[in-house]
């Protein structure tokens, strides 16, 4: 998986393909009950296909579990 996380942004943005982001959101929801995030949308600012935003604290290790 090629997911890029912009930790320096507020809110944190997560970039990648739509399919990868869907898998990541499902993982965060089922394993950590994380539900505070935006919908997946086209990434118009970067070269990645899609982006979503995290509105709750997220441990970076949770994301690397999927990658």
Topology overview:
Blueprint: E1 4-6, E2 12-16, H1 18-32, E3 41-42, E4 50-54, H2 60-64
Antiparallel strand pairs: 1-2, 2-4, 3-4
Looking at this protein, list some descriptive labels.
67 residues, 4 strands, single chain, four-stranded antiparallel beta sheet
Briefly say what this structure is:
The chain has 67 residues and is α+β, with helices and mostly antiparallel strands. It has helices spanning 18-32, 60-64; strands spanning 4-6, 12-16, 41-42, 50-54.
Task: Walk me through this protein's architecture.
The protein is of the alpha+beta class. It has 2 helices and 4 strands, in the order ββαββα. The protein has a 4-stranded antiparallel β-sheet. The protein has helices spanning 18-32, 60-64, and strands at residues 4-6, 12-16, 41-42, 50-54.
The CA-CA distance between the termini, in Å, is: 5 Å
How many DSSP-defined strands?
A: 4
- Describe the global form: globular
Structural class: alpha+beta
What radius of gyration results from the CA coordinates?
11 Å
Point out poorly predicted stretches.
none
Instruction: Give the SSE string.
Output: EEHEEH
Tally the helices: what do you get? 2
Instruction: Record the strand order, biggest sheet.
Output: 1-2-4-3
Strand content: 15-25%
What is the share of helical residues?
25-40%
What is the mean pLDDT? 94
The main β sheet shows up as: 4 strands, antiparallel
